[in-house]
Batch of 4 targets.
Target 1
Amino acid sequence: MIKNIKEIVIASHNEGKVKEIKSLLKPLGFKIYSAKKFEINEPVENGKTFRENSLIKSKNASLKSGIPSIADDSGLCILSLNNDPGIYSARWAGKSKNFDLAMKKIEHKMTRNQLLNKSSRKAFFCCALSIYFPNNDFRVFEGKKYGHIQFPALGKNGFGYDPIFVPNGYRKTFGEMNFDYKERISHRAIAFRKMKKFLQTYKF
Ligand code: IMP
């Protein structure tokens, strides 16, 4: 049972993330709002880490709405590219949020630098899930999912870089997995399990 918290706003304008976070939160029984409902703006994400950017978003949404807010900052880190696109994962897709283009950029960069062997394709998805309360209390929980990059992009499920990421122990990309399955094993699910444990004992 979650005590005292009845409402939560999800500080994201990314439909893919909102869908996954809503679904993960569902069993906890909160009333869930999206940032759009409170007309919350997208703050400038000028942090240097996933953690900092996540807190910028959850703090902004919580203080503007007056209720606790959950934010996710996440991205794909490719080891041979010095963890790029990393915290700039969304920016690599440009203003039009074109992830086909972002995946092509990665493919070109890795091809040009001869980084297509299996060890150069090692990558992980990172998720920093934060919760910020109107009394300025906050927590951040991290989840990482390791795997490798694969070209060509495969699968139409999920969002963002899902079609080029194969998690360790699987042959399918996240883009080929069904929603429920990805949601159980993803970086977001790992971070979420930690947050859930915390919420079950938090007294607000
Ligand atoms: P931000 O956290 O909103 O700055 O954006 C992170 C970006 O990383 C997203 O727009 C996605 O492109 C990418 N990303 C984060 N999580 C996932 C995921 O689970 N699958 C695919 N791409 C993701």
Note: The chain has one domain: 7-199.
Target 2
Amino acid sequence: MTQQSKTAKAVACANIALIKYWGKRDIALNLPAVGSISLTLEALKTQTRATFDPNLDKDYLIINDQQASESQRKRIEKFLDIIREKSGNRLFAEVRSDNNFPTGAGLASSASAFAALSLAATHASGLELNKKDLSGLSRRGSGSATRSIYGGFVEMQRGKDASGKEDFAIQLASQDYWDLRLLILITSKEEKKMGSTEAMNLTAKTSPYYQDWVNSSGKDLVEMRKAIREKDFEKLGDLAEYSAMKMHALTLSSRPPVLYWNSTTLELIEQVRALRHDGIPVYFTIDAGPQVKVISLPDHINTLKSHFEFFPGVENIMESKLGPDVELIGDDN
Ligand code: PMV
């Protein structure tokens, strides 16, 4: 029987980790060495349309209206192969993916991209997965994508089993649970120097602190869950800064060292500390790049926005509330 073409479209939000994921215990299956906890960001979205089509002679991949680069193509084709394997649908696919945030802004878009692709492509392939399995599948594309399956407060669990069957994310609380606000301060639009996978593997091999990072992560997760449960903003912020600094201490202690910050990053850290000293509830976190993400509460977000808007070295600011689960937004068939 000839297979019909089938299309599905999905939208997913990016997320920012409060307790960072850094390090893999299995590279091939992309199993994390540590658990992580994140906030899903409403303002940063990827919309993806996937079609499995009998008339295609290869996968066609368009990202932000441009042909995928060689490295993106390899990564996405490998991911589509996993879906083909699971669904038994052997057709090639056309994938169109668009971010609503500035492209090349140095923001990791792999989380929203692989979460949206997981839902759109499984649906188009004829495979219906629940959220747990969707999260586990997203992991094969990117570790942080597991968390973008859910809205609000999300934990990616580090499993013990070698198969990876326990490595998926769960929702800790929905987006309406607690109205946190974020500012994303863009300090550079350059490509990051080293991708997170390469840097993680370098860290695991060469940092003398790596094992301590892995051993101490359980405690950070317990404390962050408690801060969220008790809506203790100071505790949440303090732990988020601690986890980010600890992660950057790891990259700095690798050989060769990996320094993701620029001078504006450092100035913004000082600014956040000074504002806090003046009584504003505000904390920062930083991923594998020079952008600073500021976490605060609704009453203070406008003051913070005015403060950072024209700050030297800040090229762009985005504001976000907490966002929802990944969602199907249309299915042509
Ligand atoms: O999902 P990946 O492989 O791009 O790694 C994400 C790593 C960090 O963004 C630095 C931390 C995190 O938990 O998101």
Note: The domain at 1-333 is CATH 3.30.230.10 (Ribosomal Protein S5; domain 2).
Target 3
Amino acid sequence: MAILHPTANTTDRTELVPSHEGPNVFPNCSLFSKLLRHARRNRLAIRDVNLSLEKTYGDILSDALTLRSFIATALGSEIILKIEQGEEVFIGILAAGGYEFSVAVLAVLALGAAFVPMTVSVPVKEASYFVTKSRQPLILVSSEVVELGKSITSFVSQRGHPVSTLEILPHLPPTPTYEPLQIVLSANRRLDDNRAGLVIFTSGTTGRPKGAVMRRAYCHEAALAIGEGYDLDHHDVLLHIVPVHHTTGLGTSFFPFLVAGACIEFKRGSFDPAWIWNRWLTGGFTTFSAVPTIFLRLKWYFERELAPKLSADDLNRFVQAANQFRAFMCGSSALPQPVQDFWTDIRGGRPILTRYGATEFPGCLKVPAECGPVPEGCVGLPVPGVELKLSDGDHGELLVRSPYMFAKYLYDDAATLAAHDEEGYFKTGDIVRRNGPFYFIEGRASVDILKSGGYKISALDLERVALGLPYVNEVAIVGVEDEEFGQRVGAILTLKPNSLPGNDLKLEKLRQDMRKELASYKLPTLLRVFGTGELPKGGTGKVQKKILGPELFPSNWREIREVQRWERAKDKGPVEQGGHLIARL
Ligand code: AMP
């Protein structure tokens, strides 16, 4: 009898049976598999203080499915086909942290596309750069910035890039379309975790912000790794007050908590220490994650507003409120030791858990929750799976290779290649010292990268915009050491003769003019006008920022009459200017 040999065993069942998709079906991937489990357990996912609403994982998944179908319609079949074929399609999200943002993110990921978070304090011109650079066909817009969304689309469309907007909130039904039991994961092959999941625009040393493309794995695998050192789980409740278009608000304070099944309470708007302290008093949190400037301003509020005015008993209530948190986490720039000491002291000896990483390599060094005391100034220990090299033994530029790294800079192979050494390590540009397992950040190799209020800012980006102003002859942007911001953005300018009355420029005007092109957090907060001639140059004919910066902005710059400075309107409540990870979100 002839034996029937099956054909070669190479055909996957998914090639034989109909594709499994539908309005209630999420792609087959770890992120949605995890979130669905939380939905089935009816866990609380998001509290949105500004919208006064609370949503479960079931709600958010159902709403993401609903929004996904509106997005698909708005994109049209041609773009949907591209996505299905694995092509990269980038969809903008113009929303501060909150429920609308969260649903939009999940809807885009559920579609297999990638999202581009954009700050709501972005000027139209800067947004248009993000939109065109990532070739967005669509921007999802939160209810608070509908007008801004319209301005961006008309600006960009007039310049030949067709883009439309979709408002998020009006497309969410009053009650969820699907119950958790009705939501399923596709039986198709797993969606490739290497696909682009999102783009974070970040400042580099070469001028305009580069789009760091993160894989979909960023939203799940990397998030698990980042959350691991903090022992996150579904009992956790996070107060989320940092912007979500930055790796701190997204990679450290959004996805890790979401995949852990925790609850995220979003509060957006201007940074308001009084609100935060009073909210802490009401209680219900386990974790708080922020940048050093926030911890400093909360410390100031305690010392200046609470301690002098309250009775010992009342003050103790605030101390207890700070102690409800099992973990305080901080990264993005150096945490000054007095700030660390203050919080360690009022929290019964529990230090802030510091971490170090960057947009391109999130979660690289960390002080884990279970770590115990580390030497003063230590930023952390290597995260499992991450490889680190120092250019000169136990000192020098830090080079990083990790499974959680970015995939590439958007449409810029040359920059992607240039960012790595010959062994494929990312060149961080940070000067670091190692002592046993402990790492200490000493500073940056380039004077052209500033860190202000947690944000990475390119001096060249600002210089480009300043040079475009009709009255600016020459400009040098320098970082000026500062307790509050880490670094302040200092502008040194010479003016074109007779371009301004009395050859006099006020910082206020410079900020206003630059604000048309740059988000507020990038604007100079210090100015020194150096007449109408030339800026002093070194032997090579270049401005030597390392010399000129400290010369014109010495440590006692506050006492120098020629130094103009910008301050937050501290006593006027929430500040309009905002922007430093802490101000206007
Ligand atoms: P970003 O891509 O905006 O997150 O900026 C990354 C850069 O922030 C790093 O290359 C460092 O220069 C700086 N940075 C991040 N975390 C820390 C930290 N804990 N201490 C000092 N600098 C930090």
Note: The first strand starts at residue 25 and ends at 26.
Target 4
Amino acid sequence: MNKTSQIISQARREGRKALLETEAKTICMEYQIPVTPFKLAKNDEEAAEFAGQIGFPVVLKIVSPDIIHKSDAGGVIVNLQNAAEVKNAYQKILENAKKYDPTAKIIGVMVQEMAPQSTEVIVGAIKDPQFGQTLMFGLGGIFVELLKDVTFRVAPLTREDAQEMVTKVRAYPLLTGYRNTPPSDIEAIIKAILNTSKLVMDYPEIKELDLNPIMTYEKGAKTVDARIILE
Ligand code: ADP
Ligand code: MG
């Protein structure tokens, strides 16, 4: 059985609908959707060791089935520059999580590469009761939240569909480079959309998927946070 099926069956067995970020990103990797490299640490020594392997700066995040919005729980600390900072952050995150929800089951702390700031995009999928798996695309932050500048297409997507989703958002000129904003790798974005389409078609039990944000670069892109909700 492939990793995606294994992860989904395990979540099912444990009665979990929301996958952990570690699980969602492992699935992304199986579908060639680029994510920040990561490792799951079980103690502060391990976190520091993994940070050294991944390369500084790193981000630490709580991994708990009971904490969906990690920053709300004080469960995300970014821009850690050395082993000492990583160890401190590890303890701080556990402390914050316990304060937020004393009964939360803690799996560990995720150590991940810190993706440099850039133009952020969002790729999402939602299972519409009428149309089935539907893909969403937009530029991150205010473009999606405030301006609702997003496009939708029903899966499975053709390359043309994915290309249109990207070029039809009003903020598209930002992706081709504007003033101080360097151009983004449009091909990498299109591939991420197409691979997400394939993923949700292969697994109709995925009810919601959010790659938010994906940092886009002149070459390539990296998903910083991934969420998958099962039916
Ligand atoms: P939440 O569960 O609260 O949505 P996120 O994983 O999205 O937690 O982390 C919160 C924010 O921290 C992100 O929106 C992003 O701005 C920043 N962040 C998280 N992970 C990274 C990373 N690997 N590289 C750079 N920034 C990150
Ligand atoms: Mg997030």
Note: The chain is about 35% helix and 25% strand.
